[in-house]
Amino acid sequence: MAVDRPVGLRPCHVYDYDGDYLGSFTTWSAAHEWAHLQAAMGGVQGPLEIEDERVGQRRRVWVDRCAENLESATLCDVLDGPTFIPTQPRPAD
User: Fold this and answer.
1) What does DSSP assign to residue 81?
2) Residues 6+ apart with CB under 8 A from 10
3) 3-state secondary structure at position 67
4) What pTM does this model have?
5) b vs e for 62-87, b when ≥16 Cβ sit within 10 Å of the residue's Cβ?
6) What is the distance between the alpha carbons of residues 47 and 65, in angstroms, rounded to a whole number?
7) How far apart are CA 62 and CA 48, in angstroms?
8) Which of 27, 26, 28, 40 is nearest to 80 (CA)?
9) Does residue 37 sit in helix, strand or coil?
10) What pLDDT digit, counting tens, does each position of 32-50 carry?
11) Whether 70 contacts 62, CB under 8 Å
């Protein structure tokens, strides 16, 4: 199922390795942290890509590094600090 890319109040979008849309965020930092978490959890194939439509910036994200292009990948410590991962309550059986 193809999902149209959203526009508007959430200008930062995250895509998987194949370019499939994963989510949109209001800030670059929120999209950046979320993409690193997704890569770390291993639920999607990486590298992920973040796009900020406001400034036309794109960045690839792996578990521990980021890159604006493949030659300039640098270590990224966004997950070294405390990260809040919301839990979802399980429905009652």
Assistant:
1) S
2) 24, 25, 26
3) strand
4) 0.67
5) bbbebbeeeeebeebebeeeeeeeee
6) 10
7) 7
8) 40
9) helix
10) 889 988 988 887 878 899 9
11) no
Alpha-carbon gap, residue 72 to 52, rounded angstroms: 19
β partners of residue 48: 61
Strand duo 74-75 + 65-67: pairing: antiparallel
State yes or no: cis peptide before 47, omega within 30 of 0. yes
- DSSP for residue 38: H
> Is 62:46 a contact under the CB 8 Å cutoff?
yes
In the chain, % of residues over pLDDT 90:
19
Q: Say if residues 50 and 31 touch (Cβ distance below 8 Å).
A: yes
